[in-house]
Amino acid sequence: MSAPHPENSLNALGLMSGTSLDGVDAAIIRTNGTTITAHGPALTLPYPAELRRRLRELLDNAPGLQPDNADLKAVEHALTQVHVQAVQQLRQMAPHMPVDVIGFHGQTILHQPGRTWQIGDAAYLSHQTNLPVVHDFRSADVAAGGEGAPLVPLYHAALLHNRPAPVAVLNLGGVANLSLITRHGQIIACDTGPGNALLDDWASQHTGTPCDTDGQLAALGTVNAQVLEHLLAHPFFQQPAPKSLDRLSFHNALAHLAGLSAADGAATLVAFTVQAIARTPLPETPLEWFVCGGGRHNPTLMDALTKALPGAVYPAEHLGWNGDALEAECFGFLAIRSLAGLPLSLPTTTGVPSPQTGGRLTCMGITPWRRWFQTVPTHGFSSPT
Ligand SMILES: Nc1ncnc2c1ncn2[C@@H]1O[C@H](COP(=O)(O)OP(=O)(O)OP(=O)(O)O)[C@@H](O)[C@H]1O
Ligand SMILES: CC(=O)N[C@H]1[C@@H]2OC[C@@H](O2)[C@@H](O)[C@@H]1O[C@H](C)C(=O)O
């Protein structure tokens, strides 16, 4: 299939609710699914503490839950309502970029080999916003034998198209993942290990704060080398890429920190995140690493990364990107790729046997698209009124 023409670009609003469970990231981009012709505004709408607590409870219980479970449905509705608000607020901020379509990731509550589960009510979101919604981005990849994650590498590659290779993007979310673009333009990707999720849990247990704000606790501690090596002995690190993780894949790791002071535990968890990245085998060594995701706000983590990684380490803003909005932008980008029938994943990003399309379209109120539909030859059928 030939690449879509830049003039066929649409304004896509991407929505991402990540593994940190902290809120919804929303961003607008203009794209044809290959190039990004404009970046619009972005915002983050935090979840109320009670919703965060209920989401965490869902994650902990997800393996035994039925899709029609009443609590699950209630949380899904509350979560979707926050997404609706995010869309409404962002549209008000961008009257110059009227939204054509929403890319809605939803919230992953379970991610295991052969099974990935995102909650979020696309029909309600579409109805409330009167916009078409592309969602369910991971199922087709998993059904075809892929990991279903990470999906952001094709967006990273689009952003990096004129950067000297080898070059990498590193996302430090609840889970960390990287994309490497090689000299020959190959896109290699995987989840690397924990990002901030364990550190968040540790900080919340020891200081009552939702994260180790500005890395202050970890900066006071000393890495326990023995515990660190124990953590890095997890079988995940022996698996070849592509590979992916669940928010709770390393949940038991905190038990290995028992007996450490709050500061030493935090320092050891920072080293765990960093060493998991530094030890990920890559076919080429990146000249530059561009770091996005909330972890780049943690100076202790960024300093440790800079020391451990070969090549220069920069926050995403070094290239003028918004490092808090990249994943949301990505799901706008993938929504357009889905509509254009372009792959969302590759054998080198998710392990899927061949480049894989994906996403599902839900249209409850398609007013913006009626104009478009009415221009399409109807072969004897009349257009909807
Ligand atoms: N000032 C800060 N100091 C330390 N950590 C911070 C700071 N700001 C954000 N973070 C970290 O960033 C996390 C949120 O990151 P982000 O929003 O990228 O995660 P996510 O998108 O939910 O995760 P994922 O990419 O795995 O889906 C917070 O949970 C926190 O750990
Ligand atoms: C199953 C799932 O939701 N995975 C997330 C998670 O958060 C980071 C990492 O693990 C990544 O694999 C993925 O998110 C991004 C957006 C991705 O698919 O690329």
UniProtKB/TrEMBL annotation:
Its EC number is 2.7.1.170. Keywords: ATP-binding, Carbohydrate metabolism, Kinase, Nucleotide-binding, Transferase. It holds the Pfam family AnmK. Coiled coil: none annotated. It catalyses: 1,6-anhydro-N-acetyl-beta-muramate + ATP + H2O = N-acetyl-D-muramate 6-phosphate + ADP + H(+). InterPro entries: Anhydro_N_Ac-Mur_kinase, ATPase_NBD. One of its GO terms (molecular function) is kinase activity. ATP binds at residues 18-25. Pathway: Amino-sugar metabolism; 1,6-anhydro-N-acetylmuramate degradation; Cell wall biogenesis; peptidoglycan recycling. It comes from the Bacteria. The keyword Kinase applies. The keyword ATP-binding applies. Belongs to the anhydro-N-acetylmuramic acid kinase family. Catalyzes the specific phosphorylation of 1,6-anhydro-N-acetylmuramic acid (anhMurNAc) with the simultaneous cleavage of the 1,6-anhydro ring, generating MurNAc-6-P. Is required for the utilization of anhMurNAc either imported from the medium or derived from its own cell wall murein, and thus plays a role in cell wall recycling. This is Anhydro-N-acetylmuramic acid kinase. The gene is anmK.
